[in-house]
Amino acid sequence: MAEAATEPANSPPAGQPSDEYTVDEYTVDEYTVDELAARTGLTVRTVRFYASEGLLPPPERRGRVAFYDGRHRMRLDLIRTLQEHGYTLSAIQRVLARLSADASPAEYAVQGAVLAPWLPDATEEFDRAALERRIGRRITDEQEDFLIRVAALERLPDGRFRASPALLGHAIDLLALPVPHSVLEESASIIRTHAAAVADGLTDLFAKAIWGPYQRGALDHEQVVAILERMRPLALQGLVGSFARAADEAARRRLER
Predict the structure, then answer these.
(1) CA-to-CA separations, 195 to 20, 102, 120, 165, in angstroms, rounded
(2) Rounded to the nearest 5°, which phi and psi values hold at 108?
(3) Residue 174 has what DSSP assignment?
(4) Could you read off the pLDDT tens digit of each residue along the chain, which spans 257 residues?
(5) C-alpha–C-alpha distance, residues 232 and 118, integer Å
(6) Cα separation of 233 and 256, whole Å?
(7) 66-81 b/e with 16+ CB inside 10 Å = b?
(8) Nearest Cα to 86, choosing from 39, 154, 20, 18?
(9) CA distance 95 to 112
(10) 241-250 b/e with 16+ CB inside 10 Å = b?
């Protein structure tokens, strides 16, 4: 029996992909659209919008009533999580295209683990007033443009903004420094360029050493999820440590010259 739509949604928090798709109810329940919306923490309108965009397989119809099941719920949970992490609908469509209609909870767990952010800091959306309340003061148009140029803030087509609260906080701290914005922007550009090179290299390595064996059946779902959960903090620690040593060496070379 489907559970009542009036019960609170039981969706797991974002940033926990390894546990998100292992609950038995994903494979046994069926829902009306109202019950599915309640279970996933979405509105009925949003569920229907995703269905109209082809992000959900067609429901089973009995007379005039459409019934959804665990497959739809897993898809909606993945969609919601990816949107919270800043993925666009077109990117989410490409992710879902890799999943078969009868994909298991374990396969969803792997996709969630692969696409989860390295830092569990979901993005938030603000209008200008909410943004200034978050920052704690008014900002000028010039400061807004600076935040956008250093990738701490994204201006959305409807005039609202999207940002990672942690990254936004760091950028606001930079604004308080007596350093020209041009210097801060150049610093951010250098960091982004080299970070992108590191990310590309690690992604290529992951594809060869982990994703390839997983697709060939040499690694199972649980092993991939466990590897990712362990690798990410180790890689971040290694990156920070390597940068610290490189910065020390650069300072010594500069003094020696």
Answers:
(1) 29, 37, 18, 20
(2) -65, -35
(3) H
(4) 333 333 334 444 434 443 444 444 555 578 899 999 998 888 999 999 999 888 898 888 888 888 998 889 989 988 988 887 778 888 899 888 888 877 888 888 888 888 877 766 667 888 999 989 988 889 888 889 999 988 889 988 888 998 888 888 888 898 888 999 899 899 989 988 998 999 899 989 998 999 889 888 899 988 998 998 888 889 989 999 999 999 999 999 999 87
(5) 6
(6) 35
(7) bbbbbbbbbbbbbbbb
(8) 154
(9) 10
(10) eeeeeeeeee
The predicted pLDDT at position 233 comes to 87
CA gap 66, 71 in Å, rounded: 14
DSSP 27-92: HH-EE-HHHHHHHHT--HHHHHHHHHTT-SPPPEEETTEEEEEHHHHHHHHHHHHHHHTT--HHHH
Locate tokens 């390595």: which residue?
205
* Of 134, 24, 144, nearest in space to 74 by CA: 24
Q: Would the pTM of this model clear 0.90, i.e. be above it?
A: no
131 HSE (CA, 13 A, CB side): 25
From residue 12, alpha-carbon distances to 9, 22, 46, 105, 124 in Å are: 9, 11, 19, 14, 18
- Here the tokens at position 225 are 């999820």
**CA–CA separation, 115 vs 232, rounded Å?**
12
Q: Helix 181-206 and helix 141-149: axis angle, to 10°? A: 30
DSSP H or E segment with residue 126: strand 124-126
Q: What is the CA radius of gyration of the chain?
A: 22
Q: At 103, phi and psi to the nearest 5?
A: -55, 145
Q: Tell me how crowded residue 222 is: count the other CB atoms within 10 A of its CB.
A: 13
Length of the chain: 257
